[in-house]
Design goal:
With 350 residues, the chain is α/β, with parallel strands linked by helices. It is built from nine helices and 16 strands.
Length: 350
């Protein structure tokens, strides 16, 4: 018996990822799973994982102090509240629920039952994000004025509940929750003044299969957050513009590339010849007037998420995923839907 025992509700692909991760973590074990689908129960048994007789059977297990909710998004709230009422602490997969009002009910239940509630915002540990965050914080590029963060794919939405609105499908809730969380963490103390967004429905008319959002922060930075599922040529994962230079990460696992001014005045610019004439404005810089460098991605350890959860339960640390941060992201997603529906800029935090 390990120090903390976790039970999993919903044993799809992401829950399997959690199970494999927990196997590596000291003092944390999986007591068993519950899934309404017989095939997922059989799959769990094939891996020698205990399957509870029912959700109620899981909640009655007094050895379990932590429940992971890894179901479709629309039932996160009811499962989490029932688990907290049964005396369990809860980790919910993202998005924690479908709207701010539901999240507030979950927070109130956490207070009522005195249980810990957190959300698996795992992409806070993405190494590309941590690399960009470091460059922004250290001022390498001068004053930042624009950041672009995107993920592109070309296979549409996965053929499961993520295509269905009633289950909380669509890319704003699926991937947007990650990228928006990262965006707000780049400027955690800066108000977000404006949001303007558009949605796409290229492969699915029921839910959004992509979106683009322009986030305007009070410090003057505009951040473009984009998710696309019909892109056969991907744009860079990250593109960061500052007054003294530009940084880019093309894709996951690739180095950060930086080009910045070295303080040498440019003279004798060689014009670029276009079909309609010459341009010096868009001509490339001379090599002696710029620095070029590459940096490997910052390293991280996703095991820290569960290590932090256990430390919170033991009264040793604060949660690294604060619920007010989660609520802020939820409100941003709601503003994105409102902006796209009404074709207008949303005044957010003023």
């Amino acid at each position: 018996m390990k120090k903390h025992n976790l039970a999993i509700v919903g044993f799809g692909g992401m829950a399997g990822w959690h199970y494999d991760l927990i196997e590596k973590i000291e003092n944390l074990s999986v007591s068993g799973i519950w899934d309404i689908k017989k095939e997922r129960q059989e799959y769990a048994r094939s891996r020698q994982i205990y399957v509870y007789k029912s959700f109620e059977d899981l909640l009655a297990d007094e050895t379990v102090d932590l429940v992971l909710v890894a179901t479709p998004n629309d039932v996160h709230k009811s499962i989490a509240i029932a688990a907290m009422a049964a005396g369990k602490n809860v980790v919910s997969e993202k998005p924690v629920t479908l709207c701010s009002a539901d999240l507030q009910q979950m927070i109130e239940a956490s207070k009522t039952y005195g249980r810990f509630l957190t959300v698996h915002q795992n992409r806070r540990w993405d190494e590309d994000f941590l690399t960009v965050k470091k460059v922004v914080e250290e001022g390498t590029l001068g004053e930042i004025f624009k950041i672009e963060s995107r993920v592109h794919g070309s296979r549409g939405i996965p053929g499961d509940w993520r295509q269905e609105k009633e289950h909380g499908g669509g890319m704003v809730l699926d991937w947007g929750v990650h990228l928006l969380d990262q965006a707000l963490l780049l400027f955690p103390s800066i108000p977000l003044k404006t949001i303007y967004a558009t949605l796409t429905n290229v492969t699915n008319q029921l839910v959004d299969d992509g979106f683009t959002a322009d986030l305007g922060f009070a410090n003057g930075v505009h951040m473009i957050v984009e998710v696309g599922t019909s892109n056969f040529i991907n744009l860079p994962r990250w593109y960061v513009l500052g007054t003294d230079g530009t940084a880019m990460i093309q894709d996951w696992g690739e180095n950060l590339k930086i080009v910045r001014a070295c303080g040498v005045n440019e003279e004798d610019v060689v014009p670029v010849r276009t079909a309609a004439g010459l341009t010096k404005t868009m001509a490339p810089r001379r090599e002696d007037s710029i620095f070029k460098e590459e940096r490997p991605e910052e390293k991280s350890d996703i095991c820290e998420f569960y290590q932090n959860v256990m430390s919170v339960l033991e009264g040793q640390e604060e949660s690294r995923i604060q619920l007010d941060e989660v609520a802020r992201v939820m409100r941003v997603m709601e503003a994105i839907f409102a902006s796209a529906q009404n074709c207008r800029v949303i005044r957010f935090e003023e």
